[in-house]
Every structure is written in structure tokens, then in C-alpha cells.
């Protein structure tokens, strides 16, 4: 009996929680949903952007050598970056962006690609030694 009361209460709760929107019928417009209005409005910039930055990394131990620099004044941006390639060349990219003209880049390489002759030798023989046989001695049986 208690189970019937619980089920009837759950059914009543689901029925009362249903929204009072009639189901769409044939030819009737479906209910429309709209995104909420934004509550935050970003402040308008006071001046056009202007910045200048650069960085460089040169690590002799790992061979890393790369860097970049960029300057922007309003809609005019100019910059470059470079990286040491694994074949020994230095790749440089110089770019500009002027308003709506898009990103215009010029890629250059310095140096000659180096591919050292590699000598191949047979793999060394494995030095695997099997584990010694277990020296298990059963415990004495007491009678």
C-alpha cells in the first residue's frame, strides 16, 4: 500500500511540474526559444593597440636556437621569428599585417642542409643471463 502512495505522489509531482505549453499540432508553430541577453558589455577601447615584444632562446647543450619579435601600432603589425632546424639551417620568417590586407610572410633559409653520414653496425648481442634455479627446500613435516 505504501508503494502505491509513493508512486501516485511521484506521478502527481511529474504532472504538476509539466510546463503549460500545449504540444505543437500539425500546422501550428512550435514554441520559439531565444538566447538570453548578454549581461556584460565590454568597454570600448580608448586607443588603438600598440605594443612591442621580443624573445630569444639559445641553448648550446640541447641545440635549441629560436626567437621572435613583433611590433604593432594600430592596424599595422610587423614581426619576425626564427628557428634552428635539425638539418643545421636557420629558418627565418618575416611578416606584415596591414589592416585588412591579411598576413603576408616571407620565408628564408640561412646555411646549407647537413646530413652526416651515419655508420650502421650490427646490434650488440644481448647480455641476458637466465636467473639461477630456485633453491627451495621444503619445510620438515612434523608427525
Topology summary:
Blueprint: H1 2-17, E1 50-59, E2 64-73, E3 76-84, E4 90-98, E5 103-110
Antiparallel strand pairs: 1-2, 2-3, 3-4, 4-5
Report on this structure.
- This protein has one helix spanning 2-17; strands at 50-59, 64-73, 76-84, 90-98, 103-110.
- The protein has 143 residues and is mainly beta.
- It is flat and about 85 Å long.
- The chain has a domain at 50-110.
- The protein has a five-stranded antiparallel sheet with strand order 1-2-3-4-5, with no helix packed on it.
- A hairpin with a 2-residue loop joins strand 2 (64-73) and strand 3.
- 0% of the residues are buried.
- The mean pLDDT is 84.
- GO terms for molecular function: structural constituent of cuticle.
Short synopsis of the structure:
With 143 residues, the chain is mostly beta strands. The chain has one helix at residues 2-17, and strands at 50-59, 64-73, 76-84, 90-98, 103-110.
Unreliable parts: none
Helices and strands, in order, run as HEEEEE
Q: In order across it, which strands form the biggest sheet?
A: 1-2-3-4-5
Mean pLDDT score: 84
**First-last Cα distance:** 66 Å
Proportion of residues in β-strands: 25-35%
Structural class: mainly beta
Q: Please give the number of β-strands.
A: 5
Number of helices: 1
Shape: flat
Major sheet attributes: 5 strands, antiparallel
Q: How many whole angstroms does the radius of gyration measure?
A: 37 Å
Helix content: 10-25%
Signal peptide: 1-17
Pfam families: Chitin_bind_4 (PF00379)
GO molecular function, one term: structural constituent of cuticle
Protein name: Cuticle protein
